[in-house]
Amino acid sequence: MKSRKQYSPDFKKEAVKLLLTSGKSQMTLSQELGITHGLLGRWKNEFDLETSENGDLKTSAEQRIKALEKEVSHLKEQRDILKKAMGITLNH
């Protein structure tokens, strides 16, 4: 019989943190880490339930989302400026 591989809580936390901040899919990241797709999903759910551990993870994910939203806004402004400079008008 095969014995189940045990992972440390730190490894699990770092894997979930990577999932939330790297922008990689759960499938891709689980393959890179050499674990099953379902295992990474289960760890994510476990950390979602643990508010003390999840505080850092959610904060990091929220910061990443805010930064990406800011970048999208900036890029839209640049696009609009370029469209005006080129005399291009679209019905959007």
TrEMBL record:
Asked if the record carries the keyword Plastid, the reply is no
Q: Which GO terms describe its biological process?
A: DNA transposition
Q: Which UniProt keywords apply?
A: Coiled coil
Q: Name one Pfam family in it.
A: HTH_Tnp_1
- Per the record, the domain of life is Bacteria
One MF annotation (Gene Ontology) recorded for this entry = DNA binding
- Indicate whether Ligase appears among the record's keywords: no
- Which SUPFAM superfamilies has this protein been placed in? Homeodomain-like
Q: What is this protein called?
A: Transposase
The source organism is Leptospira ilyithenensis
